Amino acid sequence: xxxxxxxxxxxxxxxxxxxxxxxxxxxxxxxxxxxxxxxxxxxxxxxxxxxxxxxxxxxxxxxxxxxxxxxxxxxxxxxxxxxxxxxxxxxxxxxxxxxxxxxxxxxxxxxxxxxxxxxxxxxxxxxxxx
Length: 130
Ligand SMILES: [Zn+2]
Description:
- By secondary structure, the protein is mainly beta.
- Helix content is 12%, strand content 34%.
- The relative contact order is 0.24.
- Zinc ion binds at residues 48, 50-51, 53, 96, 98-99, 101.
């Protein structure tokens, strides 16, 4: 599917539920504990809901206890980050390299080997089992 197909926000709005749109295209956050993906630990791959790019492997998923699907690393070269100024703090926002959909934020309190915690919104992802 071509990247430019989704260039118009009105097209995104027609394709996504209101919550998916708010999270993926407006950098929103789903309610903690609301995503069924938070408790899935089966083998497989998580895809970007926007463009179907493979973005996170089940092998880097862990239970952060936050109520959001959490990973210590993405697949190689599939996400991009930017600074997100929220109140007085600067957070690292993470999104899809290909379609720009917002996934969540990256924090420095994750497990080894990276020490990173990619705190993601389940609505931005689609899981497919191995
Ligand atoms: Zn994408």
